[in-house]
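Note to self: keep these together.
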Amino acid sequence: MSLAEIVLWRALRKQQTGFKFRKQHPAGDFSLDFACLKARLAIEVDGEAHDRGTNPARDEARDEWLANQGFRTLRIPAREVLADVNAVVTHILNHCQPQSSPARGGGPRAQRVVEGLARSPEQPLHQPSAGPPPPAGEDL
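Structure:
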């Protein structure tokens, strides 16, 4: 984990809001920085390396795959985590709240959040070989 991810993880663990977060959560061929299964939200902390080479295309493919699994993706620049982790946690918790009418399909992406689509039954988000299943109430 990067420094920004460690700082964010420590802050998320302190929250007592009813939302549980998992770090380095396996999802298909990917490993998510953080996931809130109850809110169906993937949280990615992006350092400057995410803007180099093929990384932007790979990130977009990951976001699309997650959307097809019914997850929204929230991308947060690492510099924002290091500058004000409390504001970042508040932002994340706001995105964990139920969406009143989630947009479906390929509309505009507000605040780099990808709105979820229906989950594909042939590819579950959790892979049994990658560890134990989520606790009751957090399963997909």
